[in-house]
Amino acid sequence: MAWLYQRPDSKKWWIGYRVNGRQVLRSTKTSDRADAERELAKLDAITQANKAGSLTEEFVALLTRKESSGQSLRSAVKQWLNECKDLSVRTLPGYRGVTDEFCDYVNATDTAPLLRDIRQETLGAFIREKRADTSTGTANLNRRILHNFFSYCVDNQMLPHSPVPSSRALKLDRESKSKRRAFTMAELKTIYEKCPSDFWRYMVLGGFYTGQRMGDLICLPWAAVDFERGQLRLKQRKTGKAVTMPLSDALAALILELKRKAGAVKTSDAIWPEQCCRYEQYGASPFSGEFYDEVLLPAGLVTARAWPSDQRDGDGKRTSRREVSPVSFHCLRHTFVSLLKITGASQSTAKELAGHSSDAISDLYTHVDEATLTKAIKQLPQVTK
């Protein structure tokens, strides 16, 4: 027997029923009880058919106008992205980018292929192709985003099960991952000397003297810099953790010079508005590529990359994989934490300055006095001299 109910987190009415022992829950998409009861009445025929042993999923779809029986992939993607519109300005573009790439991969239109026709083999081939172009981590990220989408389809009765293969099935969790390392002081000074612009000089000094992530530095607003107190205050985009830290003399001098060049600015403006806009739209990928090609390569720390997209066999399949570099912009964060500890900073001080909120130990040391933080920053060696 079908039943009508409301979820605590929704004003809409839902219907529950069983098909061959399997519970099915679906929204009536209405908050009007009378309309919901009319939907419930339609299921009387289903109940009778079930008792008679003649119930089929096609019959259920016909009576309930279940969208999954004929909904296209693109239609379902648009519906999912619309429900994800409240996600962060970085997460939503990532979701949209991956699903758009997959839709292009299967030549999806507004009407085909149908959601129910997407096979695990197709998804596996797409993710393996992404792995041929990028790292294991990026391929896994694509898999997780597609998993989230297809899980949404299952939760909303658009599909009986998700066709996304596991990372183990794709052997994505068995491949070796490149470990990042800290830069040496000699490497760091060379990197700074090879920076081609004020932007990258700021990024290198910011990464080394604050240990903050690329996105936090690119989109840092003027309001985050307190020249009078010599402090930097920001809320980390990844963790949401508020970080207050002393400014090193070298970084403060550079930011002050940038402000002089910028002239009149609003405190809410990003220090680098153009780069911030690009980061919000495309994420870290283009900046990581620029750092590799315009800073690390001239510094002699990496070799020129041959992109697999230019290396294909007669069938158009890629014949090689891109090598994942052991050094990247994120190594500045490793360098920051490593040198803090080498110069005598405690573990709690290093975690407070870096904003490490995922480690349970950091929860025990949520406050470190300002004098200790300032001393730790001042003990870091000079990059610009």
Can you walk me through this structure?
The protein has three domains: about 5-65, no CATH class; about 75-155, DNA polymerase, domain 1; about 185-305 and about 325-380, Orthogonal Bundle (hpI Integrase, Chain A). The chain has helices at about 35-50, 55-65, 75-85, 90-105, 120-135, 135-155, 185-195, 200-210, 215-220, 250-260, 275-280, 285-295, 330-340, 345-355, 370-380; strands spanning about 5, 15-20, 20-25, 225, 230-235, 240-245. Helix content is about 45%, strand content about 10%. The N and C termini lie far apart (about 80 Å). Helix 1 packs antiparallel against helix 2 (about 55-65) and helix 13 (about 330-340) packs antiparallel against helix 14 (about 345-355). It is mostly helical and about 375 residues long. The model is unreliable at about 60-70, about 315-320 and about 355-370 (pLDDT under 50). It has a three-stranded antiparallel sheet, with helices on one face. It has a three-stranded antiparallel sheet with strand order 4-5-6.
- Main sheet overview: 3 strands, antiparallel
* Helix run count: 15
Instruction: Please tell me how large the radius of gyration is.
Output: 27 Å
Q: What's the number of domains? A: 3
Mean pLDDT: 79
Uncertain segments: 62-69, 315-321, 357-368
Question: How are the strands of the largest sheet arranged?
Answer: 1-2-3
Helix and strand composition category: mainly alpha
The CATH architecture name of the largest domain reads: Orthogonal Bundle
Distance between the termini: 79 Å
- CATH topology annotation of the largest domain: hpI Integrase, Chain A
CATH class category of the largest domain: Mainly Alpha
Strand segment tally = 6
Strand content: 5-15%
Which sequence of SSEs, written as H and E, runs from N to C?
A: EEEHHHHHHHHHEEEHHHHHH
- The helix content, as a percent range, equals 40-55%
Q: Using the alpha-carbon principal axes, give the shape.
A: elongated
